[in-house]
Write a structure and sequence with these properties.
heterotrimer, A alpha/beta (286), B alpha/beta (275), C mainly alpha (266), A: 286 residues, alpha/beta, 4-stranded antiparallel β-sheet, 11 helices, 39% helix, 22% strand, globular, C: 266 residues, 9 helices, 70% helix
Chain lengths: 286, 275, 266
């Protein structure tokens, strides 16, 4: 079941003096079962793009294929609920969407809205709570008593409990400390590798793109200008410079060494391999 | 000269939770000090205690020889400026111009002098072209630069950055960091940066590592940041170059300056040629 | 949200835009008083001509004013219906199978409609030609003499200007939370009553929580920058009154007096 944008354009406040086009002629297909990074400068249209995936925004032109549905510009889609159930969208700073008195009630809110039987919904919610790394003792606590990072986990659990096929996250690690973001990214890895979800992550962090993602989609001025697998993306030096994207540190260091005349493979993407390759080069002259 | 001195500072929340436990430190005039710690380690509380937004439970805060108390708090606030985390929630005026004016009005700067001051500091932070802009038409990085201009206009001696870049995109971070470096250099401004961004710590003169309300390590970055295990144990990270140096060490390559990628590359190349 | 016309500032350049906000507020109050004086259709006719000419002087488009009045249309229709049922004086205008509509019902509705429309026009001229911040400063200055009666003029002005500053931010926030909850299956249009209540709560509670957070942050930022509510502050924005403002106020005074004269039948 594909996720594809076909010539999609989107205009905010059409027909008013404030109208502006946020997307124009976007053509891209997201590979199922992968972790895809969506990158691009602030204001490039990334958020507008992902809001088309569960029909929060409807295309002004073109069409969006999501799973078994096709949303065509100008046609009001029916049964949005079933679409939203299958595409779980987590906004930036989702901790601000919590509202119930207890954590369990908040997580269960989504599944119940989508018509899941209460008993089943509770089981799913408790499971989701576990998956995000909080145990059952949290179920009856108030979400207001949690730390910022924990609140965010609860908010994400609220989407996981809906059990969508596709998980879309808008800058899920913004504002978290290093370990917090690391375990957050590992959570999404688990969702992908263990539970087989297709995961899309909007991010600015190139280290995350390199370490966790399979594919990358580059959005620039309302257009998707590239989709590629992560490794070939970070191999294309001229492209990175052109896009003004700051490279992951390990790639940057390898490049500097290569430029200084060292023979290192372009396929080195982690610290251990780089250290090994350097050692071979340095000690190889003995 | 000791610019800021903190002795046995304590802060207890609800009379039971110790957020800051017996913290002491000194900051030299014109230095760049970093305080790092994971979210909830108590580092932001220290900032709020220094400018008297929270009332300390014990200890002493001395700035330029003045001890912080209810009577001196306004005097202290004239000496210490702070930029907070959320760019939206500290923009008070309805335009850039009005926002810079806000602090001046509070400090009773005569109206006729304000225009010059506003123009000067807007230029200093590179926001001259945006004076009439509303906050909704500015990026996060621009809003933080306006916040810095607002603080600078009050001519403080110490600038505290309370996770000022943690909500910004890479471009915004770069803008703000570059500006802070420039202010530090050009004005010899004392900077205290509270952060969890380990790469930002590398450039500071002195660093305090905070965990569970206390300092667990302190010293020059090159001394502190090499303790990779301790840092990771308290939920922090290690700079890339340090990770690289540790990985190389396993292969028998010792790096002299593990904080500087450029020097590291040079050294590796030399090692290769000399062998 | 961009379609709201009522209360919106339009950055144009007209003589009315350049008037002093204090004078404009006083003029508006004067004109509102004049409208309240029961002068009959002749008086309202004169007022309408004057107000419409001010609309043109302000370079405002008529359809902008009509949009500003739209929210009131429902109210006017409602009023008409009530009047038809309640007022049974005057002569019978229409008789539908014994159900009589009297002339007073129609006249009364017309009176009120015209007055209401004129009032909306007046206030819209004020808000469309005056920057919100200038309006706040004007209110602060006008309230200043009442400080001795413990009217917190400065605090009121500060509150209004912060509220104005945060309106766009809160609109953005509301939009984001609505979308986030829609992603969790919230549907405000459908569902049972109980579900709707929960849906509204899921929007209101997060808005409150985040507004309190913002308020706390803002208070910290203001205090850190040396703000003390009771303390004397200097003021950056100064309002300037010119002879044009005095002329405008004199004209308004003349209009009010004319209306009084019309009302008592001089």
């Amino acid at each position: 079941m594909p996720i594809a944008f076909k010539q999609v354009s989107y205009e905010y406040s059409p027909g008013t003096p404030f109208a502006y086009g946020a997307l124009s002629g976007v053509d891209v297909e997201i590979t199922e079962g992968k972790v895809t990074a969506i990158i691009g400068a602030t204001g490039s249209g990334k958020s507008t793009l992902i809001q088309h995936l569960n029909a929060l925004l409807l295309p002004s032109k073109g069409e969006v294929e999501v799973l078994d549905r096709t949303i065509v510009a100008g046609v009001k889609p029916k049964q949005l609920k079933s679409l939203r159930q299958n595409v779980g969208l987590v906004f930036q700073f989702p901790e601000y969407q919590l509202f119930e008195e207890t954590i369990l009630k908040d997580i269960i809110f989504g599944p119940i809205n989508f018509g899941v039987e209460p008993q089943e919904a509770e089981l799913r919610s408790l499971h989701a709570l576990n998956v995000v790394g909080l145990d059952e003792t949290y179920a009856e606590k108030s979400p207001l008593d949690l730390s910022g990072g924990q609140k965010r986990r609860v908010a994400i659990a609220g989407i996981l409990a809906i059990d969508p096929y596709v998980l879309v996250l808008d800058e899920p690690t913004a504002g978290l400390d290093p370990q917090g973001s690391k375990s957050m990214m590992n959570l999404f890895m688990t969702m992908n590798r263990k539970y087989g979800k297709t995961v899309l992550i909007v991010t600015h962090d190139m280290e995350h793109v390199l370490t966790y993602c399979d594919e990358v989609v580059v959005v620039d001025k309302g257009k998707v200008i590239l989709k590629s697998d992560v490794k070939s993306f970070f191999k294309d030096e001229t492209l990175l410079d052109e896009l003004n994207i700051c490279q992951p540190k390990v790639v940057d260091m390898r490049r500097q060494l290569q430029r200084a005349g060292m023979k290192l493979s372009d396929d080195i993407f982690d610290i251990e391999s780089l250290a090994l390759a350097i050692a071979k080069e340095v000690n190889g002259h003995e | 000269m000791k610019h800021l001195e903190i002795k046995n500072l304590r802060f207890t929340y609800d009379q039971q939770t110790d957020v800051v436990k017996n913290v002491s430190f000194r900051v030299e005039k014109g230095s760049y000090t970093s305080i790092i710690g994971h979210n909830g380690s108590g580092k932001s509380t220290i900032a709020k205690l220094i400018i008297g937004l929270l009332e300390k439970s014990g200890g002493e805060i001395i700035i330029d020889g003045i001890s912080l108390s209810e009577d001196t708090v306004n005097q202290i606030r004239g000496k210490v400026g702070i930029v907070f985390q959320n760019p939206d929630n500290q923009f008070i005026g309805s335009t850039v111009r009005d926002d810079i004016a806000f602090g001046l009005e509070n400090h009773q700067v005569p109206q006729k002098d304000m225009d010059d001051i506003i123009t000067h500091f807007a230029k200093e932070v590179g926001m001259s072209d945006y004076l009439e802009n509303e906050p909704t038409r500015l990026s996060g990085g621009q809003k933080q630069r306006v916040a810095i201009a607002g603080v600078l206009a009050m001519k403080p001696d110490i600038l505290i950055l309370d996770e000022a870049t943690s909500m910004l995109d890479p471009k915004g971070k770069e803008e703000v960091n570059a500006l802070v470096d420039e202010i530090h250099r050009e004005h010899n401004m004392t900077i205290i940066s509270i952060t969890h961004d380990i790469e930002e710590v590398v450039k500071s003169d002195y660093v305090f590592v905070m965990n569970e309300g206390e300092f667990v390590m302190q010293g020059k970055p090159q001394d502190v940041l090499l303790h990779a295990k301790t840092l990771i144990d308290i939920d922090l990270d290690v700079p890339f170059t340090v990770k690289m140096a540790l990985a190389l060490k396993k292969h028998g390559i010792n790096i002299d300056e593990p904080m500087n990628m450029k020097r590291m590359v040079e050294q590796i190349c030399q090692l290769r040629l000399s062998k | 949200m961009n379609n709201i016309a009522l209360g919106r500032y339009l950055p144009l350049n007209s003589i009315m835009h350049r008037m002093d906000p204090r004078a404009k507020i006083l003029a508006m109050l004067g004109m509102l008083t004049a409208i309240f004086i029961p002068t009959g259709f002749l008086g309202y006719g004169i007022m309408a001509v004057i107000i419409i000419s001010v609309v043109f002087m302000s370079k405002l488009k008529l359809n902008f004013l009509i949009r500003a009045m739209k929210p009131m249309m429902f109210m006017l229709v409602f009023l008409m219906i009530i009047n038809i049922f309640v007022l049974k004086t005057g002569y019978v205008v229409v008789d539908i199978y014994g159900f009589k509509i009297y002339s007073d019902a129609i006249f009364q509705t017309l009176y009120i409609s015209i007055r209401l429309m004129l009032m909306i026009m007046i206030t819209t001229i004020l808000t469309a030609t005056t920057k919100p911040l200038d309006l706040t400063l004007g209110i602060e200055d006008l309230l200043a003499p009442f400080k001795r009666f413990k009217v917190p003029a400065h605090e009121i002005a500060m509150m209004i200007s912060i509220a104005l500053r945060f309106i766009p931010t809160l609109i953005e926030e509301t939009d984001r939370i609505m979308k986030a909850q829609a992603s969790r299956g919230v549907d405000l249009a459908e569902g049972k009553f109980k579900e709707k209540i929960l849906a509204i709560l899921s929007l209101i509670v997060p808005l409150f929580v985040s507004s309190f957070q913002r308020a706390e942050d803002l208070a910290d930022a203001m205090e850190a920058r040396g703000y003390i509510p009771q303390a004397t502050r200097t003021r950056y924005k100064q309002l300037k009154r010119t002879w044009k403002d005095n002329v405008m106020l004199l004209i308004v005074l003349f209009i009010v007096l004319t209306m009084v004269a019309l009302a008592i039948g001089l």
